[in-house]
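User: Teach me something about this protein's shape.
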Amino acid sequence: MLIRLLIILSLVCTLASLAVSEAKERTGPAGSGRSIDGDTLIVGGRRVDLFAITAPALGQICRESTSFGLRDYACGRHARTFLTSLLAGRQTDCVLEKPVGKDLRATLIATCYSAGQDLALAMVRAGWALAARQQSLRYEIAEDAARRAKAGLWSGLFAPPGTAFVTGPETNTGTPAAGAAGARPKP
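Assistant: First, the predicted structure itself:
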C-alpha cells in the first residue's frame, strides 16, 4: 500500500514538473505593447504576430457605405488605431503558440492579453480583423457575429487581407484584383 502511494506521488510530481516546464516554454514577452498594424505589435522589445487572426495591411483601402454611396477609407489604419486603443499603455502579456528557436530576431506568434482581454478576440469581435481559419478555428464564432452585426470591416466592402482592390474611373466598383480571393461584401 505504501509503495503504491509513493509511486502515485512520484507520478504526480513528475507530471507537475512537466506542466511547469511547458508553461515556462510558452511564456512569451510581457510589458507595454505598441501596435505596428492591426495584427502585429511590439511587446517587451519583441515583434509579435497575434495568433489566428489577419487584419488589413496598414496601407489597405476599403469601402464603407454612407448615405451618399460607397467611399474609400483607410481600413488598415483604422485596424491599427483600434489595436492601439486596446493596448492604451496597459501591461501586455503574451503566451507563445509556437516554440521559439534561438533566433531572437524572429517574429513570435502568440496570444496576447491586455487588461485580461484577448487582443485577437477583441479585434475580430470589433470587425477589424478576420479569423485566420487555416491556423485555428478559435475566433470563427466571433467573426461570424461581427459579420452579422456589420462591425468594422463588415460595414462595407473589403478585399481579404493580402489582396487588393482595383479602383479607378473604369473599375470603381471595388472589385478584387486579378487572382484575389474575392471581396467580402457586406451581407
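Now, about its shape. The radius of gyration is 21 Å. Residues 27-176 form a domain with the OB fold (Dihydrolipoamide Acetyltransferase, E2P) fold (CATH 2.40.50.90). If you'd like, I can walk through any region in more detail.
User: That's plenty for now, thanks!
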